[in-house]
Amino acid sequence: MIMPFSFELRSVDPSGARRGLLETDHGPVETPAFMPVGTQGTVKTLSVRDLEEIGVRIVLSNTYHLYLRPGHKLLEEAGGIHRFMGWNRPVLTDSGGYQVLSLADLNRIENEGVEFKSHLDGSTHLFTPESVVETQLSIGADIMMVLDECTDYPCDRGSAEKAVARTALWAGRSLASRGARVTRGGYERVLFGIVQGSVYPDLRERSARDLVDLDFPGYAIGGLSVGEPKSDTLEMIEYTARLLPENKPRYLMGVGLPEDIVEAVARGVDLFDCVIPTRNARNGSVFTSRGRLVVRNAAYARDMRPLDPNCGCEVCRTHSRAYLRHLFNAGEVLGPRLATYHSLYFYLHLIAEMRQVIKEGRFLEWRESFYKVYNSIDTGREESV
Amino acid sequence: MIMPFSFELRSVDPSGARRGLLETDHGPVETPAFMPVGTQGTVKTLSVRDLEEIGVRIVLSNTYHLYLRPGHKLLEEAGGIHRFMGWNRPVLTDSGGYQVLSLADLNRIENEGVEFKSHLDGSTHLFTPESVVETQLSIGADIMMVLDECTDYPCDRGSAEKAVARTALWAGRSLASRGARVTRGGYERVLFGIVQGSVYPDLRERSARDLVDLDFPGYAIGGLSVGEPKSDTLEMIEYTARLLPENKPRYLMGVGLPEDIVEAVARGVDLFDCVIPTRNARNGSVFTSRGRLVVRNAAYARDMRPLDPNCGCEVCRTHSRAYLRHLFNAGEVLGPRLATYHSLYFYLHLIAEMRQVIKEGRFLEWRESFYKVYNSIDTGREESV
User: Is any Cβ of chain B less than 8 angstroms from the Cβ of A41?
Assistant: First the structure.
């Protein structure tokens, strides 16, 4: 039996923080939820069983990368990304638009679509709103994203306005091509719209109304965390979230640090993805209940405590900072692997804690106590032992 | 209660293959056994839980590497290598002599010891028979190896003779310094001797008699697989093993391919270590029941079968060759990790199978059927699909 995609808003905390439940054919996702980034069909260094253990319920993968390598057609032959990765829980894919603008060599962006050169071999490709839906259908994600025009920061008003208009045009064409829900391979895939508008409230409003008129099963807030001041980020999140329908999931793309997620949850966001926990971990910088810890630093060479004495993950139960520091120092890939495992566990447990305190209606109180502990390591300096 | 190190020979197959049981304070090791190499306090890419799952009972770590980084004193502070790695089963350390000769910049080798320059920073160090015992005691291995002079191939008779004499001298001094059994940190550590003699049967005999006279709890056969023809390797193993006491474990250092292990087991060897399964896996070449498979090759890009359809490991139960090939092709470290997991599983299960058929007295018959299947992939070419 095919389970139609659904979202149920279960409770709203006095702060505005929401708790909900996404249902998909690959299982449920309680929100707020964090999606680790599995760029090339793998969350770097981790196995799918690691992800399950950590409590990951949904992963994000990148259409741009999979399209180029191993190719979406190969993924289709393999029976889709779930079978290819060995991951049986939900997958969300982005549209590839962001990578085209940030990684590839852009030839031209027109109303038709985006022409670019592959960062791998320089070959020329065209992404259109329709083609990226087809590519994502081949990949097999449960949640697909429309092609949008994501603006940089700073972005003049004229460019932001054009991007909003094009994003709306493309969203309409994406929907027109296949509709918002497609059943294939025995499960339902849905398409989310993306709100743009840079840091201009009226453009955010225009974009939100454009998208909401099209009635997507879910909405993303895009074009943030691209360099703008944090106060602008938060203002835009708050402003945009209010314009989106209460009964649809809200996904803030590419954000962020633990404190950014806490603040966005307080502003009514349900879904997150970000490379920060995994990328930083690979560089020897992990997140703990007391803040960031740069375990590759010499200061930890003889520190026999776990990364985070308050953490119950397997790495913290088994290994010391001294061991992790040795692994990084000796160039052993087990270092990035263990650090990634820990940092993702921290993110997943942090967001699970938020779901719990939202349920109990005490998000604001929790947030205060979170910051009190979280700021007790100064990010820039060593932790005093 | 401290469990004294012991070895019990449980049965001998008509072929000469032996089955036994090593007992240590960190648990039992059924022999024949394969020890994965954890050079720097980690079997590259794998967690200690992976090793447990695979069925690893004992790991080897390298004194030379640990001495230089993180330093044996740090390991002692950490409570020894077991606690440092989070590994509760037995550990064997080599003496460092082999690495000094192969990796470091050798200053001089004299009866006193070996002076060398670190391959990391060029600093000068001296290893003596006594100092490497102390270093290994700090590291905390259950089984320590004496400092020996391992010869290259080819090696003229005069040099081989000198190496045999020095190896005997050093073995005597190693024993004199602390004895063959040292209890520290609540568990017993034992010292094994090493037989040298290059490819000269009479020198192998002299060396074996020298060492046996000293009455070590176990003996290694060293100085093989250093470039000599395989027929010489096998002849030396067979000849040397016969000179060693029946009731002591026999450890063939640094060997080898699956077929080398099969042949050495047939010649009465009990313990093995080798970097081949792990190093080859990191380069995309794995061992299967049908031979070697170079999974990084383009031929496997669309091959949806597991690495080894006869294998029950988690990687073969979860992933296709196409997925592994993609990971290697995309430079994802999950590729080396999954390949290493599979290849070690193959080695550990192969040697467990040998223990079983020795028990049943049908090693020779099993060996024939093993080769029939094992040679069905030609190592040099692609498997025909």
Answer: yes
A304: contact with B, CB 8 A cutoff: yes
Say if CB B190 and CB B144 are below 8 A apart: yes
pLDDT at B318 over 70: yes
Catalytic residue among A94, A148, A260, A303: A94
Distance from CA of A44 to the nearest CA of B (A): 7
Domains along the sequence of chain A with CATH: 6-274 (3.20.20.105), 281-374 (no CATH)
From the list B42, B69, B302, the residue facing A77 with the nearest CB is B302
Angle formed by the axes of helices B201-214 and B157-178, nearest 10°: 10
Cβ contact A139:A64 at 8 Å: no
Nearest to B185 by CA among B371, B377, B2: B2
A177-199: pLDDT as tens digits: 999 999 999 999 999 999 999 99
Q: Which of B13, B25, B94, B270 is catalytic?
A: B94
- Helices B258-266, B230-243: inter-axial angle, 10-degree rounding: 40
The reply to whether residue B78 touches residue A48, judged by beta carbons under 8 angstroms, is no
So what's the pLDDT on residue A106? 86
The pair of structure tokens assigned to B50 is 């992976």
For residue A316, the chain B residue with the least C-alpha distance is: B86
Q: B337, A338: Cβ pair inside 8 Å?
A: no
β-pair type (B271-273, B250-252): parallel
**Residues B252-290: tens digit of each pLDDT:** 999 999 999 999 999 999 999 999 999 999 999 999 999
Element (H, E) at A20: strand A18-24
A118 touches chain B (CB under 8 A): no
Q: Within a 10 A sphere around the Cβ of A384, how many other Cβ atoms?
A: 8
Q: Determine the Cα–Cα distance for residues B14 and B268; give it in Å rounded to an integer.
A: 11
Give which of B340, B330, B326, B240 is closest to B286, Cα–Cα.
B340
List CB contacts (< 8 A) between A70 and chain B: 301, 322, 326, 329-330
Interface of A with B in 57-76 (CB under 8 A): 69-70, 74
A303 assigned to active site: no
* Given B148, B260, B273, B303, the catalytic residue: B273
Partner A contacted by B93 (CB < 8 A): no
Which residues 349-378 on chain B approach chain A with CB closer than 8 angstroms?
none
Does B385 have pLDDT greater than 80?
A: no
The Cα–Cα gap between B321 and B283 comes to 15
Whether the Cβ atoms of residue A33 and residue A270 lie closer than 8 Å to each other:
yes
A152 in Cβ contact with A227 (< 8 Å): yes
| Residue B258 near residue B226, CB atoms below 8 Å | no
Do B330 and A48 make contact, defined as CB atoms within 8 angstroms?
no
What confidence category does residue B126 fall into, taking pLDDT thresholds of 50, 70 and 90? very high
Q: How much is the CA Rg of chain B, to the nearest whole Å?
A: 21
ipTM for the predicted complex comes to 0.96
Instruction: Tell me the C-alpha distance between A84 and A72, whole Å.
Output: 11
User: Can you give the pLDDT at residue A108?
Assistant: 92
- Name the residue among B315, B318, B311 with its Cα closest to residue B339: B315
Question: Which residue of A326, A327, A328 is the best one to mutate when testing the B interface, meaning the one whose CB has the most B CBs within 10 A?
Answer: A326
Q: pLDDT tens for residues A215-228?
A: 999 999 999 999 99
Asked if the model's pLDDT at residue A205 lies above 50, the reply is yes
Sorting pLDDT into bands at 50, 70 and 90, what band is B231? very high
| A61: number of Cβ within 10 Å | 27
């060759």: which residue's tokens? B321
CA A245, A246, A248, A254 torsion-angle sign: positive
The enclosing H or E element of A293 equals strand A291-294
